[in-house]
Design goal:
This protein is mainly beta and 260 residues long. Helices cover 3% and strands 63% of the residues.
């Protein structure tokens, strides 16, 4: 169902170096992967820029790269997603993500086991470092010319280090095991228009009241065989964030992607 590169171009390395997710606590990997990449190696590059001048000089740049390596029995995926933002030439936000995933496609006709690892940070969320490793199963409930409806479940071990004030009651360093679950819907509205929706819920095993949720809605319109315009809406909720961080975070983005 997807894949990753054994060799990485300098441009891809640059994109991975700048990598950053739009919402730090969870990363919607499902929205970044193709439903059926061909055998062999392929990938995509993308990005968007927001600029505002006048009373406030604002600029934000986001870049992303994903690389696949697909064989008849497994799929490897490497993702980098990143960006930086400035207000009046002063950096106000930056974040970075590097994600590797391996999926086995011949173990079962209905379920595909997978494992993955991830490193990321997000300055706006006061997340200075996050590392996780996990594994689970994914399946497709329905699939046809119209698209695909699927789900997945698994467990992740995550470590987070936060930059918090001395007065904060939330611990600056946490180690947690979470149960991660997702539903994903991919609709092929037309030959050139694809709509995807993904919902994640990740409760902590020690305290189910401590959970994180993520919804991402994305529309991609192909303008050529290799180029597409995208519009994405992200919503993130953390039931127990540090007092200095908002529980709800939303973002609307437009961009362009190049496939090779």
């Amino acid at each position: 169902m997807f894949r990753c590169y054994r060799s990485i171009s300098p441009l891809a390395l640059l994109l991975l170096g700048l990598a950053t997710p739009s919402l730090s606590a969870q990363v919607d990997i499902e929205a970044l992967r193709l439903s059926d990449p061909p055998l062999g190696r392929s990938g995509t590059l993308g990005g968007d820029v927001s600029i505002r001048t006048g009373n406030v000089d604002f600029i934000a740049v986001d870049l992303s790269a994903r690389m696949y390596d697909v064989t008849p029995s497994e799929t490897r995926l490497l993702i980098g997603d990143g960006g930086v933002g400035f207000i009046d030439r002063s950096r106000f936000a930056s974040s970075g993500l590097l994600h590797y995933r391996r999926l086995y496609t011949t173990v079962s006709p209905r379920f595909n086991p997978e494992w993955y690892g991830q490193l990321n940070y997000d300055r706006a969320q006061r997340l200075t470092f996050r590392a996780l490793a996990g594994s689970g199963l994914r399946t497709g409930f329905a699939r046809g010319d119209w698209g695909e409806f699927g789900a997945g479940s698994g467990f992740i071990l995550e470590y987070e280090r936060l930059a918090l004030p001395d007065t904060a009651t939330h611990p600056a360093n946490t180690l947690e095991v979470r149960w991660t679950n997702f539903l994903t819907l991919r609709i092929l509205a037309t030959e050139n228009l694809v709509v995807t929706s993904t919902t994640y819920v990740q409760p902590a095993l020690t305290t189910f009241g401590d959970y994180r949720a993520l919804e991402k809605f994305r529309v991609s319109a192909a303008v050529s065989e290799t180029m597409a315009l995208t519009v994405s809406f992200d919503l993130r909720y953390d039931s127990r964030p540090p007092s200095v961080i908002s529980a709800l975070d939303t973002r609307l983005r437009t961009g362009i992607t190049y496939s090779y």
